[in-house]
Amino acid sequence: EGGATNVGVLAAGVQAGLGKSNGEIRRLIDGGGFEIDGNKVTDPKATLGAGSYLLKAGKHRFAKLEIKAG
């Protein structure tokens, strides 16, 4: 299977508009303020496969992100 699409959580946060840079998302993760589908992200190197995700930065910023396969 050569078509799996994985997106890093840092890139996903930037793509969703929750931060201006990977560093900004990394600081949110380090401070415990970044969640995906209600689960706190602790590893900035984690990746997301194809699917639909709800991202949360801080207490009040949310974004929906769709990652397409292939």
How many individual helices? 2
Order of helices and strands: EHHEEEEE
Strand content: 25-35%
Distance between the termini: 10 Å
Low-confidence stretches: none
* Main structural class: alpha+beta
Provide the gyration radius in Å: 11 Å
Summarize the amount of helix as a percent range.
10-25%
How would you explain this protein's 3D organization?
Helices cover 23% and strands 33% of the residues. It has a 4-stranded antiparallel beta sheet with strand order 3-2-5-6. A two-stranded antiparallel ribbon has the order 1-4. The radius of gyration is 11 Å and the shape is globular. The protein is an alpha+beta fold.
Key terms:
23% helix; single chain; globular; 70 residues; alpha+beta
List the helices and strands and how they pair.
Blueprint: E1 7-8, H1 9-15, H2 22-30, E2 34-36, E3 39-40, E4 47-48, E5 51-57, E6 61-67
Helix pairs in contact: 1-2
Brief overview:
This protein is an alpha+beta fold and 70 residues long.
